[in-house]
Amino acid sequence: MQTERDVVYKEEAIPLITVDSKTNKFVVNEDAIAMISSIKGNIGVVAVAGLYRTGKSYLLNRMLLDRSSGFGVGPSINPCTKGLWIWGTPLTGQTPSGEPLNILLIDSEGIGALDQDSAHDNRVFFFDNFAEFMLYLQQYWKY
Ligand SMILES: Nc1nc2c(ncn2[C@@H]2O[C@H](COP(=O)(O)OP(=O)(O)OP(=O)(O)O)[C@@H](O)[C@H]2O)c(=O)[nH]1
Ligand SMILES: [Mg+2]
């Protein structure tokens, strides 16, 4: 039998913000918002940002998820991650005072790739920080 948790939480990376290649607009994925909204309790966020092809996705998989696959890792010199991705299940952690903490992992498109200009890079970087900030605030809206 499927529980509510099975429906909402997935053991895979899901898009959080995608870029519409035709309009160049950033689009929020409602499935990711539903997953985030379902979380009860404290939320912590770990997000990676930085130059393209420097191992950001690999780092999240190996260091935080302890998996050989998870967030998309590219084999070539071409940019791999596009937009922002979030792990479909919060990790379980603790606040410094010992309270339960739901940790969200966010992977982001690398900056400096030749297929995008610096305005696009700035937007990705902004959204990465903005997503982290909004999720941080969300726990206070709930109470
Ligand atoms: N062996 C080894 N390979 C690594 C390490 N970090 C990254 N790689 C390899 O480097 C390549 C790029 O890794 P990604 O994780 O896709 O890099 P990224 O920064 O997410 O790239 P973009 O999404 O394009 O910005 C992949 O082939 C990884 O397997 C590492 O610490 N050890
Ligand atoms: Mg990547």
Explain the overall architecture.
The protein has helices at residues 4-8, 30-37, 56-65, 118-141; strands at residues 13-19, 26-28, 42-47, 84-87, 91-94, 100-108. By secondary structure, the chain is of the alpha+beta class. The protein has one domain: P-loop containing nucleotide triphosphate hydrolases (Rossmann fold, 3-Layer(aba) Sandwich), CATH 3.40.50.300. Strands 1, 2, 3, 4, 5 and 6 form a six-stranded mixed beta sheet that branches. The longest helix has 24 residues, at 118-141. It is globular, with a radius of gyration of 15 Å. The termini are far apart. The model has no long low-confidence stretch (mean pLDDT 87). The structure holds guanosine-5'-triphosphate (GTP) and magnesium ion (MG).
Helix-strand layout with pairing:
Blueprint: H1 4-8, E1 13-19, E2 26-28, H2 30-37, E3 42-47, H3 56-65, E4 84-87, E5 91-94, E6 100-108, H4 118-141
Parallel strand pairs: 3-6
Antiparallel strand pairs: 1-2, 1-4, 4-6, 5-6
The structure holds guanosine-5'-triphosphate and magnesium ion.
Magnesium ion binds next to helix 3.
The hetero molecules present are: guanosine-5'-triphosphate, magnesium ion
Strand fraction equals 15-25%
Separate helix tally: 4
CATH architecture, please?
3-Layer(aba) Sandwich
The helix/strand class is alpha+beta
Could you spell the SSE succession in H and E letters?
A: HEEHEHEEEH
CATH fold field value: Rossmann fold
CATH homologous superfamily heading: P-loop containing nucleotide triphosphate hydrolases
Could you give the count of β-strands? 6
What is the average of the pLDDT values? Answer: 87
Please state the overall shape, judged from the principal axes of the Cα atoms.
globular
Q: Uncertain runs with pLDDT below 50, 5 residues or more?
A: none
